[in-house]
Design a protein that fits this description.
about 350 residues; alpha/beta; UDP-N-acetylmuramoyl-L-alanine:D-glutamate ligase; 4-stranded mixed sheet; 12 helices; about 20% strand
Length: about 350
């Protein structure tokens, strides 16, 4: 977070101001915990919505870009959330939470008119989530700034989705951010068609800007129909996406039945990891983070697939999208010699 923001905070009479001032002092004392240093490790950026998930067991910080940044940080990368929060208690809590996790907050914008995003989450018996999203949230009003231009040039990986583009101001800013990244940056498009905030034009434009696209089976069918692909096998539809939009990788997730990763040269079909599901919130975002982490390091496609499935499956055993993950647990999830059928 920048000094400029904190200098705008006057008397700390509101809980937001008190927390902000506290974070400012922590920021000046321990800058490395909240700012991105000069590239000792890859920079992974979650671009778009920041949302508090109101779950049956309480609230947890979420939103796909936030979840991606969180898991990327746990995997050993530098990470930042490029989003917008309200000047309210939930915004202050989000700042504190991200800073405590070692995720850079210096690119979080503060909106003085619109509230921090929230969503009510309901879970069915299988742990599948349904969402009631609030509208007109702070993250709907992302602004292009010189600071974000700097971040776009720093980014090695940017993860963005459909939900973050539901209104024009944010959509315009996200496109500009993606266009400002370096040619070698990896841009991951996370397709989310559970809501109604999308159309053919948005999807096609996002695919053209992407390096990698991740979507689930129902989304693949819907996307194929919208693009006029017609019915075909998953692999052939993935190849059509690769060819038409000059993508490098298409990742199709199948829940407990694993995933299919397709490039122009090879295919990796993973059978999945057997787990007892707590809820599925954030499992796909964790899958993307692990996929991007290993893709950036030029790992074999089979290894990328294995890691992504393991990490995504583990998150499904936890409540919410940003569960605590210690070093020993991470080693157990990703350690050498584990079989695809491992039970967590």
């Amino acid at each position: 977070m920048t000094r400029k923001f904190f200098e705008r905070v006057a008397r700390p009479t509101h809980i937001y101001d008190k927390l902000a001032l506290g974070l400012y002092h922590a920021h000046t004392m321990k800058t490395h915990e909240q700012k991105i240093p000069d590239r000792p490790s890859p920079v992974m950026v979650g671009l778009g919505e920041l949302i508090w998930d109101f779950l049956p067991g309480g609230r947890q910080l979420g939103g796909a870009p936030t979840n991606f940044a969180y898991m990327s940080r746990l995997l050993g990368n530098q990470s930042a959330v490029a989003s917008r929060i309200g000047r309210d208690d939930l915004g202050a809590e989000a700042l504190a939470r991200l800073a405590g996790l070692g995720i850079s907050t210096e690119y979080l914008q503060v909106d003085h008119e619109h509230p921090t995003g929230t969503v009510r989450v309901r879970l069915d018996e299988q742990g599948e989530a349904s969402f009631a999203m609030n509208e007109n949230s702070a993250w709907d009003y992302l602004e292009w700034t010189s600071r974000w231009a700097e971040l776009a040039l720093k980014a090695d990986v940017v993860c963005f989705g459909t939900l973050g583009q539901r209104v024009e101001p944010a959509r315009r800013t996200i496109i500009r951010f993606l266009e400002a990244t370096r040619p070698g940056a990896v841009r991951v498009f996370d397709v989310n068609l559970r809501h109604t905030f999308f159309n053919r034009e948005m999807l096609a434009r996002s695919l053209r800007l992407a390096t990698i696209v991740k979507l689930n089976q129902p989304e693949l069918l819907t996307l194929g129909k919208m693009l006029g692909f017609g019915a075909d096998t998953e692999e052939k539809m993935a190849q059509r996406l690769l060819d038409e939009f000059k993508l490098e990788l298409v990742a199709i997730t199948r829940g407990e039945r694993g995933s299919l990763l397709v490039t122009g040269e090879e295919v990796s079909d993973h059978c999945g990891v057997r787990v007892k599901v707590k809820d599925t919130i954030g499992a796909g975002d964790a899958f993307i983070a692990a996929l991007a982490h290993y893709y950036l390091r030029r790992a074999p496609l089979s290894q990328i697939s294995e890691a992504a499935n393991r990490v995504g499956a583990w998150v499904a055993t936890q409540e919410g999208a940003t569960p605590h993950l210690g070093a020993q647990t991470l080693t157990r999830i990703l350690g050498d010699g584990l079989e695809p059928g491992l039970n967590f």
